[in-house]
Amino acid sequence: MKVMERMEMAERTTINILGVETSCDETSAAIVRDGREIIAEVTSSQIDIHRLYGGVVPEIASRNHLLMLPYIVDEALKEAQMAISDVDVVAVTNGPGLVGALLVGLSYAKALAYAAKKPLVGVHHIKGHIAAAYLQYAQLKPPFLCLVISGGHTNIVHVKGYCEMESLGRSRDDAVGEAFDKVARCLGLPYPGGPEIDRCARLGNAEAIDFPRVLLEKDSLDFSFSGLKSAVINYLNTKKMKDEPFDIYDVAASFQEAAIDVLCEKIDIAAKRIGESKIVLCGGVACNSRLRQRMWQLGEREGYELFVPDVKYCTDNAAMIASDAYYEYMTGKRSDILLNAEPSLKLS
Ligand code: KG4
Ligand code: ZN
Question: 3-133+314-330 in CATH: which number?
Fold first, then answer.
């Protein structure tokens, strides 16, 4: 039975879900009502710590989650003016992500659910990113097409129902956010590189350097960003070897435009192939200002209806986890105390 049918049949009661997210470098807890309404959300970013090392150091991430999470959950409950007894379900990201970081959130959520006698729901991180759009767009319902673009993922997902998804394409090597971060690092920009490239690109000429647009086989919906990343690194190395100057703003703008050309081309092919005109953008890279502009232009040209969550809900947060958990819970999903962290959890 489809989730909406089940929901319509079920007597409507309010469900408050406490979500916990620790899959990478944000420690986050949120309380969301009926999958759509954020009652409280508290996120502590570790970016300033990891910036010192030029990227996320997994062991440091785990240790900081351990330090912060109890306070973050308490703060979220306080902000919601709720006790744990007022919460109906505890939800937690159990993959994919950094295994140590996931384990901290998972152990905490399992202990909390067990002690408070609340049902536990494990959430797939990508499904969480997709659900971020429900927090912003009250009218948004599946089916739709979703471009999930983050530091760890580049996926085109056909969201057929709240809990029914099919991955139509994925990166065969680097995720697009990873390419942004690596190129930024080669340009001497701090971590995370995505927002830095975005900022520098606004001052550069996107046509200055012709970096490759890797589209793979004809009609493939998969991605490959390692060739583009290598092309930028080779360009920079050649310039340095020849002792020639280069314009960091032009490099950022030309790289960014090449990556965006590929993202726009693939989502356009996917939309036409499955005949879907509703498109959701999510994940950290969906914060990119030029990508947002290009996607609006594409939507206008092709008649697509675009849904792009606020920047705050594109990057990792626990509200999106609580939102997805609501739909999982309504279809009857319950996780048990043996739920494990799965760093490479597949999207089913
Ligand atoms: O979704 P997210 O917070 O974490 C993962 O699940 O990976 O995404 C983080 C990624 C990083 O690679 C970061 O550089 C990228 O999102 N990012 C951006 C922008 N803001 C964040 N990439 C391009 N332009 C941006 N404005
Ligand atoms: Zn994420």
Answer: 3.30.420.40
96 pocket-lining for ligand 1 (C-beta < 6 Å)? no
Cβ of 93 less than 6 Å from ligand 1: no
Q: What is the DSSP string of 63-132?
A: HHHHHHHHHHHHHHHHHHT--GGG-SEEEEEEESS-HHHHHHHHHHHHHHHHHHT--EEEEEHHHHHHHH
Per-residue pLDDT tens digits for 208-220: 999 999 999 988 9
pTM reported for the whole predicted model = 0.94
**Number of helical H runs and strand E runs in the chain:** 12, 10
Strands 305-307 and 278-282: parallel
Q: 222 CB less than 6 Å from ligand 1?
A: no
- How is the chain split into domains, by residue range? 3-133+314-330, 142-308
Indicate whether residue 24 lines ligand 1 (CB < 6 A): yes
pLDDT tens figures, 4-25: 555 554 556 899 999 999 999 9
Please enumerate in sequence order all residues whose Cβ is within 8 A of that of 298, keeping only pairs 6 or more positions apart, or say none. 264, 267, 268, 304
Ligand 2 mean position to 96 CA, how many Å?
9
How far does residue 315's CA lie from ligand 1's centre (Å)?
A: 6
Q: Given this structure, which CATH class describes domain 142-308?
A: alpha beta
Neighbours of ion ligand 2 (CB under 5 A): 150, 316
